């Protein structure tokens, strides 16, 4: 469970530092980009549009764009990823235990 909480905190941290990311010679050195790649690997799914994933994982209040709908999607992606992580560690975990993890 500690690694799941660490993952959530790390993801939130990366979202917060996005404005400080730089691109040099077409290559992104943003930790946020790296986190998006890691997220895709953990989900076992490659998104067709990284820009939409980036918007989904960006808090609604961060951008001038209206990210409200995408922020809901981003929160769902994080919860799904964490739920998969919890289930991979304990197949018999109850839905209530998963909910308690997110609340606690």
From TrEMBL:
GO molecular function: ribonuclease III activity
Coiled coil (UniProt feature): none
Keyword flag Signal: yes
Domain of life: Eukaryota
Xref: InterPro entries: RNase_III_dom, RNase_III_sf
Organism, scientific name: Medicago truncatula
Domain RNase III: 36-89
Keyword Signal in annotation: yes
Full protein name: Putative ribonuclease III
Alphabetical list of Gene3D superfamilies matching this protein: Ribonuclease III domain (1.10.1520.10)
Enzymatic class: hydrolase
Keywords: Hydrolase, Signal
Signal peptide: 1-26
EC number: 3.1.26.3
GO biological process, one term: RNA processing
């Amino acid at each position: 469970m500690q690694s799941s909480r660490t993952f959530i905190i790390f993801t939130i941290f990366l979202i917060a530092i996005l404005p400080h990311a730089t691109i040099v010679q077409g290559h992104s050195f943003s930790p946020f980009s790296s986190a998006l790649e890691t997220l895709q690997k953990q989900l076992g799914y490659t998104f067709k549009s990284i820009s939409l994933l980036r918007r989904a994982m960006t808090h609604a209040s961060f951008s001038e764009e209206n990210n409200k709908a995408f922020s809901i999607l981003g929160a769902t992606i994080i919860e799904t990823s964490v739920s998969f992580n919890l289930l991979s560690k304990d197949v018999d975990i109850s839905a209530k235990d998963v909910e308690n993890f997110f609340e606690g």
